[in-house]
Design a protein that fits this description.
globular
């Protein structure tokens, strides 16, 4: 029970706190010259449907570059700035989903992505990524896969 002046924890506030911890764990490895082992494996980061879409897209591009040519979490190919101190604005988004807007404080190199987080057991996984230039990476990957299949 909350004491006077405290806010009682609710499922929504617990979800937001656990999602914030998940995002902090993900972005802990995003800084210049970070060794690759600091990045979490994809199955610990992305929702199964997102991983399946990536795999399907790679399969239709054998020996070629697939649709995704960089890291969607930093919207980059190489981490050039420190993303360990991002600000996260997290709000509920339907059942077992949250929207997390991640923004950086570097005015010279603005950073902004919106992550759709999906509950995965007692943790979270990234189900989709949106940037100022790509409103849904998942839809773009699926669309590219379907287009290549039609052309084969």
């Amino acid at each position: 029970m909350a004491t006077p002046g405290e806010v009682a924890a609710t499922p929504a506030t617990d979800d937001i706190a656990s999602a914030r911890a998940f995002l902090a764990r993900i972005y802990a490895g995003y800084y210049p010259d970070a060794p690759l082992e600091t990045l979490l494996p994809g199955d610990e980061v992305y929702a199964p449907a997102f991983v399946a879409a990536l795999d399907a897209n790679q399969q239709v591009h054998p020996g070629e570059v697939p649709y995704l040519q960089g890291d969607p979490l930093c919207d980059c190919q190489d981490v050039a700035e420190d993303l360990r101190e991002l600000a996260f604005d997290i709000v509920p988004h339907g059942r077992d989903e949250l929207l997390a807007s991640a923004t950086g404080s570097n005015a010279e190199h603005p950073f902004q992505v919106q992550l759709t987080l999906q509950r995965h057991g007692d943790s979270w996984r990234v189900a989709d990524v949106a940037t100022p230039t790509e409103p849904s990476l998942l839809r773009a990957i699926v669309r590219d896969t379907e287009q290549v299949k039609r052309q084969q």
